[in-house]
Design a protein that fits this description.
single chain, alpha+beta, Peptide Methionine Sulfoxide Reductase, Chain A, 6-stranded mixed sheet, two-stranded antiparallel sheet, 10 helices, disordered N terminus
Amino acid sequence: MTMHVSSGRNWPALRNLGLAAIVALGGFAMFQTANKAAEEAVVIPAPAQDLPAADGLQTAVFAGGCFWGVQGVFQHLDGVTNAVSGYAGGTSETATYDQVSTGGTHHAEAVEVTYDPKLVSYGELLQVYFSVAHNPTQLNFQGPDHGTQYRSAIFFATPEQEKVAKDYIAQLDAAKVYPAPIVTTLEPLQAFYAAEAYHQDFLTNNPAYPYIVFNDLPKIEALKKLFPAEFRDKPVLVADAR
């Protein structure tokens, strides 16, 4: 993977490196310090409004920082049949990791979640998204990753999805479950572009990666702790869906 270093993106670049390279660039302790701002899980109420259960599989697209962790969280959620890392918000011509990493494509790193609404609802996906998958109060960054490509965004496919998400954000803000207002944007889904193959199932395939250890594995533990009935120990993988 190519390492990109630009303003506001020095630490995200390190997620592309192994432990030995991180030590050579400045030390493991510095990596730990840079990751202290990583998002933490928050106990929140379920949405007051939800979509009715529909026949057949449905999809939802969420952006919440690096897609490795967001994908990993949803892969461990019962009722999810697939979760694909990719890009949303920009055009097909710029839907590549190298281009999106510059922060100038309008894309966000996102995850397309395919789910069975009779097993897990859209509202339940939103609850996990806001509680475990990321911190919705961080504007254009998540933990060590900075730039609009790491923004908190829900890409709604229908007016019904938009309304449920909008009402839930208002509900959470009113309940003051976070120390700051939610900055998650609601954006119409124009298209979703799957990321490169090496990004898929990254958390499962690279559990010892320093970035995964510090930023993403705690999310999986939080999901198991806060949503024990919905947690699936064996993740549903993109590789298995091919």
